[in-house]
User: What shape does this take?
Amino acid sequence: MNRRRFIKLGGYLSFATAATGCLNDRDNAPENGTRGARNNTETSGTEEVEPGEVIVREETVAESPYGDDIPAKRLRIMSTKKASVEVTVRNPDGEEIYHAEMSLHGSGELADIEIGRAGDYEINAAVNSEEYEGTWRVGRGFTDASVQVTDDGVEIGASPELGTLVLTRMSGHPDTVEPDTYTNVSEVEPFARAFDRLDDCIQDDSPEHCIHPPEDAWERLDNPDDHPTATMRVRGREFGTVLGYMVESGKESANLYRRDSGYPGYMEGYYIERDGEFYVAYLSSGLSASQPAGPF
Assistant: This one.
């Protein structure tokens, strides 16, 4: 399918790639795993772009199985100055799946490509005839990718998502939740390390990753002293591993608790049972390891 387009954006746009909400499935992947082939050719009549303007001269999306294994990731091409940009994306097998040529001036363009299959995709960019390359790491735990041109240079690729895994010992669990077993979660390395940290915090709560809940943390549950908490920073694939485990199909409805007015005081998160005691894990985004999280 061929289509011509001339895009003029009447202002400066900011495309910030940021970590999304942590316990959301973020299930916005395309319904099927393919995208239609497209080849756009644009002759605008002028090679000079004005501030806030994007001129797309050519954009080709190969017909290829991009997958729907994970919520789809997208590519943004942006520039804070006047630039001619040519971008090519290749899949892990080295096959070209996207190509675009455009001129930008203080604005950006959301590329017509979505990838829902984990892997390392290659991005090659030519900015004002200078060549650059980078890796688009697709997977849970990584943001959308970007080709960003500024006065400081050219940045290519996706950023690892950052978050904090918070683990708290509880005196029970809501009736609507069927806790997972420690035997299961301990096979996931970040969970195993978080439990080790919590055990250490029970012995000595002085390290900054140990949080002592305030007296008013719960309204109806036991003494907050009985609910020690440990925190642990996770990033990139580790972040994605924890998030993926919590929201995996078949687990979310049974183990993941959302706040419910019928169960005041219980912490939102993923419930786990170990040796007759109950724990709740919560994945927060962007908090430092020493910051309180959850209900505190």
Summary: The two ends are 55 Å apart (CA to CA).
